[in-house]
Amino acid sequence: MPGLPVSALMVVCPVTAAVILSYRQHGIQGVSRLRKRSADVHRLGSLLWLIPAALLKPGLFAISYAVMLWMGVSLPTHQLGGAALLALVFFLSALAEELGWMGYAVGQMERRIQALGAGIVLGLIWAGWHIIPFLQADRSLSWIGWQCLYLVSSRILIVWIFNNTGRSVFVAALFHASGNLSWQLFPVQRSAYDPRITGSIATLVAILVIATWGPRTLTGRKESTVLAQHSQ
Amino acid sequence: MVDRTVAVQGSGQSNRRLMPFFLSAFALTLPLWLAACFPVS
Question: pLDDT tens across A141-170, in order?
C-alpha cells in the first residue's frame, strides 16, 4: 500500500493476542469459537443495518469532501482505480483487528463500563496503538490529535453497529473496512484528507447516535439482552 | 446484594482477561514499530 509504513502489518496483532488467550482459557474450542466469529454474518437480524455498516463511512468522507469544497479548498479529482483489490485487503485487515477488539475484548468492557464507556476506552487504546505509525509517517502532532478524535468517534460507531447487528464481528469489520477504503480513496490517495473536518463530522454523528440510541447499550435495549448475544 | 456481588466478580474476571489481551496486543506490535523505526538495510 503506497505510503503505509511497515507497522501497518500490526493489524494481525489483536487477533493473534485473542487467539493466544482464547487457547489458554478454553483450549482449541476457544480458538474455534473465535474463528467462527470471522463469518458470523448470520447474527445480523435486519439487513437494513448493512446500509450504515457499508455506507455511513463513505458518506462521512463524501460530506468532508463537500465541506472542503465549500470552504474553498482546492481538491484534486477522485481516482477510483484498484478499489476492488483495496476493498478486499482492507476487509481482511479489518477482520484481523476486529476479531481481537470486538470479538474478544469489547464484551468484557461493556459488562463493566457499558457500551459508550467501552467505545471511548477502546477508542483511546486503539488511537494510542496508531500513534507510532502516525509519527513514523511524519504526521504533525495536530494531525495526530484530530485523527485520534476521529478514531475514538469511529470506535463508538463500531460499537453501535456491532451491538445492533447481533454483535457481528463480520459486520463490524465491514464498517471498519469501508472507512479505511474511503480514507484511502480520498483524493488523491488521501493526500487531501483533513482529520479536522472528518474527525469533527464523525464526532457529530457519534453524538447523534448516543443521543438517539442511549449510552448504556447504543441500541435502545437493555444490557442483559445485548450482552447475552455475546456468549452465543 | 447478590447482583452487586455477581457484578463485582464479573468485573474482576474481565480485568484478568482484558489486561493480558491489551498487553499482548501491544507487545506483539512492538517489534513492528521497532522494525519501522530502525529498518535493516
Answer: 999 999 999 999 999 999 999 999 999 999
Q: Is the dihedral of CA A84, A90, A96, A100 positive or negative?
A: negative
Query: DSSP assignment of A171-211, as one string?
Result: HHHHHHHHHHHHHHHSTTTTTT--HHHHHHHHHHHHHHHHH
ipTM of the complex: 0.87
Closest residue, chain B, to A128 (C-alpha)? B26
Nearest residue of chain A to residue B11 (CA atoms): A112
Pairwise CA distance, residues A147 & A82, whole Å: 25
Q: Average of pLDDT values for A180-194?
A: 85
Q: Which residues of A touch B13 (CB under 8 A)?
A: 108
Count of Cβ atoms closer than 10 Å to residue B14 Cβ: 18
pLDDT band at B15 (very low <50, low <70, confident <90, very high): low
**Can you read off the three cell numbers belonging to residue A97?**
483487528
* CA atoms of A109 and A170, how far apart (whole Å): 19
A112-125 pLDDT, tens per residue? Answer: 999 999 999 999 99
Q: A10–B35: do the CB atoms touch at under 8 Å?
A: no
B18:A109 CB<8 A: yes
Let me know: does A53 contact A178? Beta carbons within 8 Å.
yes
CB–CB of A186/A193 below 8 Å? Answer: yes
> Smallest CA–CA separation between A154 and chain B, in Å?
19
